[in-house]
Amino acid sequence: MNKLFGPQFQHYAIIFVRYFFGGFNLMSGLNYYVRFWPWPTLPPSPSATYIDVTITLGLFDVAKIIEMIAGLMLICNIGVPIALILLFPVTVTVFILNAFHSPLPHIMASGTRNMIFHLILFAAYSGYFLPLLKIRANPSPIWRNFPYIKKYF
Amino acid sequence: MDWSLFAFAFDGHVDHHSINPLEMTNYERFGYICGFVAVIVAIIWDRLKKRKADAAPETETLYTPATRKSLSAEAGEKK
Fold first, then answer.
1. Is this complex scored with an ipTM above 0.90?
2. Å between B74 CA and nearest CA of chain A
3. Would you tell me which of A152, B9, B31, B78 could form a disulfide with A24, CB atoms 3.0–4.6 Å apart?
4. Residue A44 DSSP one-character state
């Protein structure tokens, strides 16, 4: 059992989740502009109404651009932690719309699975996020530490 | 819905209209393809790297400074 879920399994599992999530979001974002497939038409539901409103307000474009950029970053393994942070609001919104407001079981499963995959990736890259949990943080302004910013790249 | 490229419509519905919990959207399908291809490539890549690393030491040790030193020392001794 230990061998099955050992470091090698974890290594490949993280690769799978990262590429799945990256590919899903990249395609979801690209399809809004390039139209590889027709847009999925949602059955009448609160989520369909919400999406109509976000398209009217232009928020849907923002979400799709974030999906494209973050998806590409996940696939190319460039700035994965910041890509996960960028993508989190989109994942949460999709999770709420799909899991609680969709009448279709496979769409409920899709949103929930994406949320779980996002949390798995957060856990896998937790070393980069744990410093954010500091309770009493002193200011560390970027304008004072600017020359040292290079060390983070 | 003939226009859809969605191919897993077991119950005659497509994409976001299916009631089958096992069906996938096009995005999910693309995600799974990406994931599986990436894992296969990673496995092949890792095996090639391991094979290269296993084969490398003999050639690498010839060029390390320590070996050079010992070789030259050996040559000096012979002289």
1. no
2. 44
3. B31
4. S
